[in-house]
Amino acid sequence: MAKQDDQFKKVVSHAKEYGYIFQSSEIYDGLSAVYDYAQNGAELKKNIRNYWWKAMVQMNENIVGIDAAILMHPTTWKASGHVDAFNDPLIDNKDSKKRYRADVLVEDYCAKIEGKIEKEVKKAAKRFGDAFNKEEFLSTNGRVVGYQEKINTILSRLGKSLENEDLADVKALIEELEIVDPISGSKNWTEVKQFNLMFGTKLGASADSAMDLYLRPETAQGIFVNFLNVQKTGRMKIPFGIAQTGKAFRNEIVARQFIFRQREFEQMEMQFFVKPGTQKEWYEQWKENRMKWHLSLGMGTDNYRFHDHEKLAHYADAATDIEFKFPFGFKELEGIHSRTDFDLKAHEKFSGKKLQYFDHEAKESYVPYVVETSIGLDRMFLAIFSNSLVDETLEDGSERTVLRLPAVLAPTKAAVLPLVKKDGLPEIARKIIDDLKFDFNVIYDEKDAVGRRYRRQDAAGTPFCITVDHDTLEDNMVTIRHRDTMEQQRVKIEDVREIIMKEVDMRAWLMKM
Ligand code: ATP
């Protein structure tokens, strides 16, 4: 655990030191669970968004993208169920005066048991060596099976109590498990209460005529209310999808773990409209598609897993999370939900307008079913950033910190470094930049010894360094150094663009899907 905490602290401080993420309003001591993306962070975030958008919209003939407003008519949130049901079960600790999400306390308790399972697996793998069969071990080892059964029993009870809104039982569960406040170690809990997560605001200047609005807690509703507009103007035939990326706001209670859980965050969502009865197939299809998208970035198959929901939201008939191994363990990165016709039907009811699709072949109208994929851009950022940050010991015994960002997403693709600040080398470096800047973000760096400059670029995540030296004056060649392998090649200046393009071109990455 201590090791995990250290790694996470490193991620947070590295993100600040290298211009990726700053705390919001830092000079005023910050605003809790709100963050700003800095010069490199903004680029990385934009590249992730772009990679998602291309894979979703550009690569799929039957998916189009929109950009709906953050403010929506307040009835939207009655229809969606958010006014009545967008609640978190909260519990306060009377000694520390801290407030927690009751379900998260129970889930964290289970995560600890899971940690014990992982320990057993590691121990056994060491003992049995090559003969170790993980699946078999998990299903036959008495202690591990016991742990797993305990987790299942707890989560299934939690699921049932939440579904039945039996908050007294959630409290009872916390007491029976003897869960303590992570800060004070105290078991002195209040009752569990519900709390609505939407941020309210007002439209209009005068107090009497102002209208109460909410900042959207999810982007999905902007798509549902536009379903028919898009279908008609885009002449879309079912099955088809509508995608969008944008800010969402939740007054999260347990806002911690850096950008993992913020009060203002960005979602990348796609709602796929299908014929009723076919939703199961599409749900499976989108599970597969989304996992392929993640794996295309090459961050390791072992770092992802599906987690099917025990407790389904009021609108869903199937739901799963794609979980990622963050520095603090496996947690939700993306949700894939089969949302039935709940939202469109609710908007029909509340607006009095028909939201139906006329199927020309079947000659019938129906309200489509929806399968959605919903990923947090900030969580994806954290997944990539934390996974990429590694400390390496090199062959000569020296250390380096390197941010192995997938090259396609790196904020700056190359740094151009004149070996010295004189003899015409800076001028050549500037000329190279003036050419490359049409295609990539490139930077110029002439300060410090070249070895230090390499290290600085490694830590910032720049995939290539291009060094101009005295030989360049004679042979028009430069040294290109690769961040991950540290391999250096002598190449013609005119070939540099193509070498970089080969590694950062989105086309090649998308083709891995
Ligand atoms: P959680 O259970 O972690 O609160 P959720 O199930 O409420 O998440 P969804 O409503 O399914 O999340 O939202 C879709 C995605 O939006 C999530 O998978 C996550 O990546 C992202 N997301 C949700 N809440 C936040 C938040 N407070 N900060 C950052 N990202 C978030």
From TrEMBL:
Residues 136-418 form the Aminoacyl-transfer RNA synthetases class-II family profile domain. Its EC number is 6.1.1.14. The keyword Ligase applies. Keywords: Aminoacyl-tRNA synthetase, ATP-binding, Cytoplasm, Ligase, Nucleotide-binding, Protein biosynthesis. ATP binds at residues 250-252, 260-265, 332-333, 376-379. It is found in: Cytoplasm. It catalyses: tRNA(Gly) + glycine + ATP = glycyl-tRNA(Gly) + AMP + diphosphate. GO terms for molecular function: glycine-tRNA ligase activity. It comes from the Bacteria. Substrate binds at R101, E218, F265, E266, Q267, M268, E269, E372, T373, S374, I375, G376. It holds the Pfam family HGTP_anticodon. PROSITE patterns: AA_TRNA_LIGASE_II. Catalyzes the attachment of glycine to tRNA(Gly). Belongs to the class-II aminoacyl-tRNA synthetase family. Homodimer. This is Glycine--tRNA ligase. It comes from Kordia aestuariivivens.
